[in-house]
Amino acid sequence: MSFFNSIGRSMTRSQRPKRSPTPTSATFSPSEMPPPQPPSPTITTPKPLYLSSPFVEAALVKGNFKTIVMLPKYVDIMEWVAVNIFDFYTNLNEFYGVIAECCNQQSCPKMSAGPALNYTWINQDRKSVHLAAPTYIDYVMTWVQNLLDDDNTFPTKAGHEFPPSFPSTVKHVYRQLLRVFAHIYHAHYHQILHLRSEPHFNSLFAHFLAFGREYELLEVKDVKGSSSAPVGVGQLWEAWRQMGILEG
Ligand SMILES: [Zn+2]
């Protein structure tokens, strides 16, 4: 089932992003590219804990996520995507809220997601800028919350249609939520472990990945990054695919 194909060609023509009035709206396509980094021959990166046993296998949901993400009978695909995005956002926001005191300007001066990967933000002058992770994440979460609250984007009232830009908007949302997951895994996994929340967090993220792939909301290149700047969670995705938790 293709979410995008199901909406038809006419939708894709009108998706060129309009500037929405929120201050963060011009910034939802941050550059992929990390700043050039000098080679650092002395650094050998240890395997992150989230890729290590038993944490990599920890899950609330056992087995494959395929059936969980399937469109239920009689449910509109837009509604299904909207309600799932709402749930992913709400759950991720709660997790981040718990660890937020450990994610500050000192601990996380950059929005990191791998040993050589810092996400940059496109500001209103279309310039790519580095932000501290808490600032970046605050921008993402505020932007998503505003979209969810906007009945023109996520209609909740009977008779209101989803706008033609909905698929493109949710793809942007997905990409930014992925970055928040990626930062938490990379920089704050020990705090997740400290809370003994790794089964819950892993299941939330696996569900997010499975849903994103099923409805074409998630690009593989965003999950894996580039060879010079891999996303830490890209390896987690590979590991879960090998374990049969996720499909291709
Ligand atoms: Zn942080």
TrEMBL record:
Region feature (Disordered): 1-44
InterPro entries, A to Z: MOB_kinase_act_fam (IPR005301), MOB_kinase_act_sf (IPR036703)
The UniProt record lists the keyword Iron: no
Residues the entry annotates as binding Zn(2+): C103, C108, H183, H188
Low complexity bias (residue ranges): 21-31
Biased composition, class Pro residues, residue ranges: 32-41
Pfam families (UniProt xref): Mob1_phocein
UniProtKB keywords: Metal-binding, Zinc
Compositionally biased tracts (Polar residues): 1-14
PANTHER family from the UniProt entry: MPS ONE BINDER KINASE ACTIVATOR-LIKE MOB
The name this protein goes by in its record: Maintenance of ploidy protein mob2
